[in-house]
Structures are given as C-alpha cells and as structure tokens.
Amino acid sequence: MRRVVVAIGLIGLVFASLSIGAADLSSDQGGAFLLTVSRVPRTAAALLAGAGLALAGAVVQLAVQNRLVEPGLTGTPEAAMAGLLAITLIAPGAPLMVKMVAASTTALAGTAGFLLLARHVPRQDPMLLPLVGLIYAGILGAGVTGVAWSVDLMQYLGTWQAGEFSGVLRGRYELLWIIAIAGGLLYLAADRITLLGLGEDRARSLGLNARQTLLAGLVIVAVMVTATVVTVGVLPFVGLIIPNLVSRWRGDNLRANLPLIALAGGTAVLASDLIGRLIRWPYEIPAGTIFAVAGAAIFLWLLYAAPSQRDARG
Amino acid sequence: MIRISQLDLTRDGRRILKGIDAQVPAAGLTAVIGPNGAGKSSLLHCMAGLLPPSAGTITVDGTDIVAARPANRARLIAMLPQGTPVVPRLSVADLVAFGRWPHHRGHPSATDHAIIRESMIAFDLLPLADRRLDSLSGGQRQRAFVAMAHAQSTPWLLLDEPLAALDPKYASDIMRRLHAMSRPGPDARGVVVVLHDLAMAARYADWVVSLKDGRLFASAPRREAMNGASLTALFDTEILVDRLNESDVIMVR
C-alpha cells in the first residue's frame, strides 16, 4: 500500500515537472518539441543527479563509518572541478567524455586524500571528521577558485558550483546516465560496502579485501559526483540528508535499501527543482538552494533527534 | 594449535611486540591477559592475520596465517574486534547472516540459512531476529556479534575484549557461552579472548597467555599462569589468589 502511494507521488511529480515551465506546452505545435528537448531531459537529470548524490553519500558514510559525512565534505566536487579546470586549460576543445574522465580521476584522488586524512582523525567524536572534511574541501575549493580567477574562468566555475537544472537540454545532460550504470555496479558491490560499514577489521576478518572494496566504492562515488558536477553543478546536502533519513527508517543494509536511497534522492531533487520553478514563476530559483534550505532544517532535526552515537560501543 | 614464534611487531617506530614465542592449544578457552598497553590486542590481531608482523611466524593448525589468502583465512579464524563508535543499523538476522559471508560471498545456500538459524538459536537471538542493533542493549548487541562470529563456523574464534562495558550479568552470560563453545565435541572451537577481568579469566580459562611490555610473560595452563606470585609480578600490584568452593578467587590488594 505504502509503495503504491510512493509510486503515485513520484509519477505525479514527474508529470508536474513535465508540464510546468515558463513556456506553454499546449500553445502551439512546439509542445512535443519542448517536451523532448527540455522537459524530459530536465526531469531525468534531476532524478539521476539526486539518485547519484544520495547513493554517493551512503557509500561515503559506510566507508568512513560516520553518518555526518557526505561527498560535499570529502573534497570530491572540488577535486572534480580542479580536473575540469585543468582539462579546460590544457585541451579546451576536448570532448565531454575526456573531460569526464579527467575530472573523475582528480575526484577520486581528492576523495582518497580525504580518506587518508580520516585515518588520523580520532573516532570518538563523530563531529570531528565532518569538520576536517569541511576544511579540506575549503582548501581544495580555494585552490580551484584561485586558479580559475587567475586564468579568467570564474564563469565556468560558477556553473559547476550552483546546482540547477534550467540549462539542461537534450544533448547536454546524457552524461548523467552514467549514474544509472554506476548505481547498477554499486548494487553488485553493496554487500561488501555494508560489511565495510562494520569496521575495517571486522570486514577483513570475514575475508573481505577491504582496500579493494574501498577503492571500488570510491571510484563509484567519484564518477557519480563528477557526472553531477559536469552537467548540473554541485547540490549540497543531498548526500547527507537522504542516506540518513533512509538509514534511520530502514537501516544500513545497502543492498536492501539501495533502490530506496536512489528513489528518495531523485524525488527530493526533482521536488526541489519543481518548487524552485514555481516560487517566483516564471523566474527560477536553483534546486540546490531550495534543497539546502529544506535540508538544513532536516539536518538540525537529525542532529537533535538522533540518539547519541557516542555511547554505543558495538 | 596456534604456534607463534619470534613474533615482532613495530608500528610507527614503536616496538609493540618483542620476540614472542607461544603456543595456544586447539582445545579449550585461552585468556590473553596483561596490563594496559602490553600488546594484547596487537597480538590477537596478528594471530587473526589482520596485522602483518614485522618479523616471526604464526601458524594456525599448520597454516601460515600471514601468507594465507583472506578468503581461506576467514574460514579458519573468526575475529571479533572491539566495537566501532558507530553502531551499524542492521537487524540481528542480517548481522548474523553476514557471518556466513566467507562461505557464500553473497549467495547464501540453504545450508547457510540453516547455520544462521542454528547460531541464532544457540545465542537465544530468535526473538530479537528482526530488531535492529541500535535498538538493543549493549549486552544483547554483543551477543549478536558473537553469534555472527559463531555462524562463521571456523575452528578458531578470537575476541578482543568482548566484555568491555558490559554488566556482570551480560559479561558472565557471554563467557559461559564462549566456554561452552570451546568444550570438546564435534563442534568444539578454539576460543581466544583478550580479558581485562581477571575473575572471568580465573573462572573460565583453560590456558593463559600473559603479556607485559610487549614481551611474553607466561603461556601456560591457567592454574600455573594465574597464581598470586605470577599475577603480582605481571601487574606490579599485589594480587592474591585463594580457593573458594572449588574455584579460584582473585583479590587485588
């Protein structure tokens, strides 16, 4: 029953997303054109980006065993931007796929850097690691901004930094389908990543190759986040809020909850985009901004309503 | 039998284990005791094959545990490390089921399900099967983790301070179950436990390995390793051992 309600809600949301916008679908013969060139891509992009960021968040949280970490706090988007910036400078005309590979590689390196840092952060206080991540991401971001400013590419940076979907058109968002592929691969590795969430020693004593699993997880995170940064820009909080909500409700078994996390992430971002389109119609507010406002409130609730993680030693 | 010879471990420039030679008999329950920082946990991690020693060898039932492939190692030794700060939000049934991972790698068979059920029954977890770990008391949660290691069905089970932060009721419950698992029989396991609680060690251990400052202090039957004189020397504080109702009583002065 609950599933039916959720499905109807999502279909309604998709339908609304397809029909709402500054231009009128029914006005003339351009309706079908508008639908296929703008509305369908935009709706798909919001669903995919939300799903990807939420899944990436779930993986990162299990990998470092800290629920307050998300891709935006591991330097991943900033590192992806560094790669994008570098490839734009070195080979300005490079095809999108080359840019994607370059940015994914630096994103992976940036995330791995965070994990190396995380090894030295005491685990007793769960708030410490996100703070370290905040500073780490801040330093990477400052470096990227510095370089972008000095080579006069601040405008590019702006499009990567503010997550919004108004520029999504057919032919300019298809890269996001990589998220669907990465999500499928993640499903295959889901049990292993859940084991990683039990702690490295426990996972290894079960015969898991923890390093290999961690690397696979990080590659998936890097690819998902980079695809989002390249096509629609950074959407903060999605990777933090959605996995936490699902984890509170349904637990940490990634294989069982992966579809739900993806669905919830996609729905939340699509809803944010829709609200952003409606509030100041016909103008738009970026989906990232809408989600951040709602996400901040939910995050506060999570912090205060969540039972303390400190008292519980497994 | 676990044979440790000339084991040395250096981490971050600090020599944690120094030339340890010890044997742990296959049958029974072995307690690893010693003062804080003596290297008990490190020794256990080495024995479990989770920490490569800087020098020396460790064989478990004849298998070189350092060189063993992770998948083979996980069918020989189950290790329960100390808990992580974050309690996983998994159901008890899911957690115990993960204990079978080394045997099925993600595709459990009917046998796996049967063993998972057996382990849950053995640890009285069936009524809690659908409860999540974060909703359990510390004692129930620890019981679930031990059941997970039990389901791994390995000849060896190593536990790093499984009684930390448990009430006496839960602590003795866990120890009784571990003791029962290590009794001779078709399903007997070699159980090695790092213990802080000397009373528990005196009550349940058959064999004792004691460490001091990274060196082996004793590796002997419990009665031999846990007399007043040796415990006093081990912990640098006066400890008396007396008999009461057929069992040893430890008194720290």
Write a structural description.
The complex is a heterodimer of chains A (314) and B (253). Chain A is mainly alpha-helical. Chain A has a single domain, classed as ABC transporter involved in vitamin B12 uptake, BtuC (Orthogonal Bundle), CATH 1.10.3470. Chain A contains 12 helices and no strands. In chain A, helix 2 (31-64) packs parallel to helix 7 (177-196) and helix 10 packs across helix 12. Chain B is an alpha/beta fold. Chain B has a single domain (2-252), classed as Rossmann fold (3-Layer(aba) Sandwich). Chain B is globular, with a radius of gyration of 18 Å. Chains A and B meet through helix 7 and helix 8 of A and helix 2, strand 6 and helix 6 of B.
Secondary-structure-based class of chain B equals alpha/beta
Largest sheet report of chain A = none
Strands of the biggest beta sheet of chain B: in what spatial order? 6-7-8-3-9-10
Number of strands of chain B: 12
Give the tally of structural domains of chain A.
Answer: 1
The CA-CA distance between the termini of chain B, in Å, is 36 Å
CATH architecture of chain B: 3-Layer(aba) Sandwich
What is the architecture of chain A at the second tier of CATH?
Answer: Orthogonal Bundle
Number of strands of chain A: 0
Task: Sketch the major β-sheet of chain B.
Answer: 6 strands, mixed
Specify which chain pair forms the largest interface.
Answer: A-B, 32 and 40 residues
Give the DSSP E fraction of chain B (strand runs of 2 or more residues).
Answer: 25-35%
Task: Tell me which oligomeric state these chains represent.
Answer: heterodimer
- Rg of chain B: 18 Å
CATH homology superfamily of chain A: ABC transporter involved in vitamin B12 uptake, BtuC
